[in-house]
Amino acid sequence: MAKPRAQFICQNCGTVYSRWAGKCDACGAWNTIVEEGTSGGIGGGPAAMRSARKGRPVALTSLQGEIEDAPRIVTGIAELDRATGGGFVPGSALLVGGDPGIGKSTLLMQAAAALASKGYRIVYVSGEEAVAQVRLRAQRLGVASAPVELAAETNVEDILATLADGKHPDLVILDSIQTLWTDLVESAPGTVTQVRSSAQSMIRFAKASGSAIVLVGHVTKEGQIAGPRVVEHMVDGVLYFEGEGGHHYRILRTVKNRFGPTDEIGVFEMGDKGLREVSNPSELFLGERQEKAPGAAVFAGMEGTRPVLVEIQALVAPTSLGTPRRAVVGWDGARLSMVLAVLEAHCGVRFGQHDVYLNVAGGYRISEPAADLAVAAALVSSMTSLALPADCVYFGEISLSGAIRPVAHAQARLKEAEKLGFGQAVMPASSEETLSGIGSKGFQPRMLIDLVSRIAG
Ligand code: TYD
Ligand code: MG
């Protein structure tokens, strides 16, 4: 038999190398490549040498009824159900990733308790905390009386044996994948090989038993343990739980979903009794708005199917440096450079002698190009020290030629703005003929220069 060769695996992204290196070429991380034994069991090694068993293909059409009837496991926590696309799917595997301490265990304990109280059988396997600690947290959350079954196990084979006892559970929460280890491979817990093999065994269990499983994974910066990215491709859904330091709200973001839409978000606020749902995030992000300040524009954005209003703040100030500063928080720096260039080239607004700071209020992060117009409005407003109308929202994409391009979901954005008391909108000339309410009263510039002349008067 061939001698098992050592392999070197990046703990951040899972790329395999034949020799050690200081930097991973695939993901660019430093010091994340660690020697691991070759994996047995799955896809190689002695455990894979078993006799082949004949499979039985089934007709696609014969499955129709079964799939339609598969009931979702709905927690009743609306923000979580939205992010999962309507509840947990029996037989599926979901990954919940996030920084340590962000609130993953808290969220899942609340979900577990809500489901257990509805009569589902929920098993919460904690590899990080002792059963007593988990119970303490449940007490703090006010859900200690919910009939959730707790287990403090880390060995996959033991977990599977435990789960085989009695009626099969509806949902199994594994907190966290980095603590799991399987007898099939020899690497230490937390290494890529262990995390992948353990996840694989649990996912196979989910498919075979029909239980839904949730894998919790810590996002790691140091590369000491494998990050959740190394199992993203194996699971049916991936949610990331995010939050900004110093802010109490948390965003649950759908990154992958085989059974529903991605780009959805759920918004929560962390309090002393756990996570509270925030059903109207716009109110949260617009909370501390100073209406008469120059340099602030309200962007009517979308997160998946849901409109979110958020304030964009710009500060343009004369520079004392040779090269003026450009600093951005919550938006793309390259996109800011582009908007500045278009303002300079097509609208005659010069930023060469000015520092530019851009901030998205509340620590929120925007990825939509539709924010261009709001950013441009905030920049011009700060440059001219003229405050924008307080009851106006902005959205639209700016092209390099200075034209304003239409964006999707105009109607949904306008409806949200109207609900929150805004009276007008600056937006692209829309193909949606049915614009009503504030949309019909809005200003629809075709070129960015039209907006600049309107602001600067
Ligand atoms: P936790 O769910 O343990 O995070 P994770 O599992 O993602 O590592 O959350 C830990 C943090 O949340 C901790 O800093 C304390 C805080 N917290 C509250 O503010 N209120 C609460 O009710 C609970 C349970 C935790
Ligand atoms: Mg935890």
TrEMBL record:
Belongs to the RecA family. RadA subfamily. It comes from the Bacteria. The keyword DNA damage applies. It comes from Mesorhizobium liriopis. CDD domains: RadA_SMS_N (cd01121). HAMAP family: RadA_bact (MF_01498). Plays a role in repairing double-strand DNA breaks, probably involving stabilizing or processing branched DNA or blocked replication forks. NCBIfam families: sms. This is DNA repair protein RadA. Residues 69-219 form the RecA family profile domain. Signal peptide: none annotated. A motif (RadA KNRFG motif) lies at residues 256-260. Residues 355-457 are annotated as: Lon-protease-like.
